[in-house]
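INTERNAL TRANSFER SHEET
From: sequence group
To: structure group
Subject: Putative hydrophobin-like protein

Please process the attached sequence and return the structure record in the designated field. Keep the field labels unchanged so the import script can parse them.
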Amino acid sequence: MKASTLTYLGLASRATCEITCGLASGYDRGEKAYFFSGDGSLANFDACSARCQSDSKCQSFAFDSSQCLLYASPLDSNFREQSNSPFLFYDRDCPVDF
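Return from structure group:
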C-alpha cells in the first residue's frame, strides 16, 4: 500500500490534523460516494482533487483510470484495504499526488 500522511499544526487553534494521501488498493467502508463521474474527464489527481475542493461537502475523494468519486467523510473513517482495487484515495487537503 502506498500512502503518505501529512500532519498540519494549526497555529491559531493549536489543533493537530492528519490527512492521508494516496491510499491504494481499497474501497469505501460503506459510506458510498455522493458524487460519481465515470466519463474519464475527472479521472486523475488534479481534476478529481479540484472537483472535491470546489464542493464544501467533500472530505475525501478517489479515482481510477475512468472514474472520480467524492465522499462526505475523511479516509480514516471510510477506507478499507482490498488488494484488487484500482482506486487511489485521498483526503480533501492533500496538496499533491503521491
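Handover comment: Residues 5-16 have pLDDT under 50 and may be disordered. The two ends are 12 Å apart (CA to CA).
Transfer complete.
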